[in-house]
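re: ur msg from earlier - yeah i can do the adenosine-5'-triphosphate complex, just paste it... oh wait u already did. ok heres what im feeding in:
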Amino acid sequence: MRRIGVFGGAFDPPHVAHAALVKTALAELQLDELRVVPTGQAWHKTRALSPAPHRLAMAQLAFAELPQVVVDAREIERVGPSYTVDTLREFKAMWPTADFFLILGEDQAQALPHWHHWQAILELAIICVATRAYTTGARARFDLETTHKSRFRRLPMPALDVSATDIRARIAAHLSVADLVFQPVARYIAHHHLYQTA
Ligand code: ATP
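and the outut:
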């Protein structure tokens, strides 16, 4: 049975915690393939995202060294709002017998009950959750994780205090992000003058 991971995000920009999450998921879940899916019009983000071609290009640079990773542009190419459930249904149609693992940071996992057709998402994929730094120690189970125990897994990964929000703010403030994004991504950001204003 093919095992396919699905990791969505704005990737504005992709950073070292995203990469750590992907590497942990590949190893821990014994994935044959992991689809990194940059969001199109993310319905749940209030901020305007950087243009999709930039986020797509940076994701390709960030995960280039991982042969099992495929950066998948379907949500960017999709017209209208981007829903994870639609992406999972498309994957299911492409690989009807595969097992799917949806990889999420804890902040996103906690928000899952607000997602479009979340019940269908739980049927389509096992939800694999990485703890985020600000939830360290707590590791509080959220309601859905308790009520739908068999559909959730925790990814054993040290919590990393890294966020794209902080990276954008640091770049706008002319602070170094050398430890937070990989060099090809840093070069891309500099070349295209991204995140120059807070
Ligand atoms: P922003 O700060 O702009 O909201 P972000 O750093 O959360 O961005 P996203 O691209 O929105 O990055 O995240 C994609 C996925 O990666 C989400 O599921 C998110 O929870 C997860 N993620 C991001 N950073 C971390 C981290 N430091 N630890 C664990 N998961 C993370």
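cool cool. The longest strand covers residues 3-9. ping me if u need the other ligands too
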